[in-house]
Amino acid sequence: MDISVVIITKNEAHIIANTLQSLQAVTSDIVIVDSGSTDETIAICKKMKALVIETGWAGYGINKNMGIKAAKNDWILSLDADEAIDAALQQSLLKLALTNNDEVFNIRFKNFFCNKWIRFGEWGFDWHIRLFNRTKVQWNNVAVHENLIFPADVKVTKLKGNILHYTVQSRQEYDAKTDHYARMNAKKYVEAGKKPNIFKQYFSPVFAFIQHYIFRLGFLDGAEGFIIAKTTARYTFLKYRYLQEMTNATNNNM
């Protein structure tokens, strides 16, 4: 099978074995780009025959591209450490001819909150392009919310099967991730020259909650749906608040 898998990691010992186990039938070339794990992540990956690159943290896109460069094959399946593939996706990957380098493959995500599958709201209608040819596609180099850069004539094909995304295992982990991503996104805004906007800081969170909890039926996921919609609103508020704080700090230092 001419597919390589690239995964970036840091302290993923609690989940990485599950991810790697799901890939055993698909490929023997798995590249791990680890940015300073202090748990058993590296040992687990090596035990399961993955190639481990130990490096620092340069940003999501940069670290993913580092792994892509080290892969044996041109066709890359890009996963996060908390993402496994189900049996249906395994079969879809094994049957692919992979003859058109300008073709990319869109894959449905099943997102889990503390092991509950979230069917609606922000997490319920999730598709992402994760299989592509590295001679035509790569990640951009932004620090957070990285995107793939595609050729102009790209062909997008949906695959049967799912990526199983075990997003968070606790409320505490979810809150910590929310704060971390809000700070990183605010920093990206500052570097791009984006200015604080009071309207967006206070009204965008309300719109985000209504969109995901009401219009995208998040309420059908019960308490978890409410928590996710509320946390999305909090994330939206925090990124604009941190943008204001970082902008003020920059101006005060001038």
Any overview of this molecule?
By secondary structure, the chain is of the alpha/beta class. It has 2 domains: 3-168, Spore Coat Polysaccharide Biosynthesis Protein SpsA, Chain A, CATH 3.90.550.10; 171-252. The chain is built from 7 helices and 11 strands. Strands 1, 2, 3, 4, 5, 6, 7, 8 and 11 form a 9-stranded mixed β-sheet that branches. The chain has a two-stranded antiparallel ribbon with strand order 9-10. Strand 6 (103-113) and strand 7 form a beta hairpin. Helix 5 packs parallel to helix 7 and helix 6 (198-215) runs antiparallel to helix 7 (222-252). The longest helix is centred in the last third of the chain and has 31 residues, at 222-252. The N and C termini lie far apart (56 Å). The mean pLDDT is 95.
